[in-house]
Amino acid sequence: MMSTVRTASTRALAATATLLLLTAAASAADMAPLMDPAPEAATETFAAPSPWQVRVRGLGVITNDSGSVNGVAGSDLSYSDSVIPELDITYYLTDNFAAELILGTTYSNIYGEGSLAAVGKVGKTWLLPPTLTLQYHFTDFGAFKPYVGAGVNYTMFYSQKGDAASSLDVKNTFGTALQVGADYMINEHWGVNFDVKKLFLKADFDATIGGTDYSGKAKLDPWLIGAGITYRF
């Protein structure tokens, strides 16, 4: 009799335990999150612009038309103006500061003026004036990006030929440069550019005219006025 009671009690306890486990499982299912976890915020990344930029311009070279020949009172010189293609390469050190190398070559006819007017065309020389400027770019005007700059140039004279002069030698020389300009960016890569530079360029020269040797200084001091296309890599 006691064995039967114990068996019944054991079965009752087992049934109760099973019922409690089933109830706990059901409760856990009911406590599942009602909302899907919030997705991680999407992060949008933008590639930083390349520090490299190039421009191609059409450039007007307008000289100062001044100079002198040593020992000749009232002497003066003038030079022909020209229009040339120009390439410049810019490297941005920061968003605001950049270094620009300007490359182009042109020729100039040299004429006697003042007391040398009767001489006419003295000769012709080609010149290559690579110019390096440090620029400050303003960044608060949206697509319109003005800048100012200052720097140095080294002008090399080559393929020199005398006309009234039987020989002509214009010396290579250093100069300084001031610059102001602006880009208007059509998109992140392409833009249009307008640029004005003033070179302070005074070169010494030697010439032989009518068997007499002369020396002097050619004060070119040209304005370089250009417009063209900008490409930012």
Automatic annotation (TrEMBL):
Gene3D superfamilies given in the database record: 2.40.160.20
GO cellular component, one term: outer membrane
Transmembrane segments: none
SUPFAM superfamilies on file: OMPA-like
Keyword check for Signal: yes
Superkingdom of the source species: Bacteria
Signal peptide as annotated in the record: 1-28
Record GO biological process: transmembrane transport
Record's keyword terms, sorted: Signal
Family: Belongs to the OmpW/AlkL family.
PANTHER family recorded: OUTER MEMBRANE PROTEIN W, PTHR36920
Entry protein name: Outer membrane protein
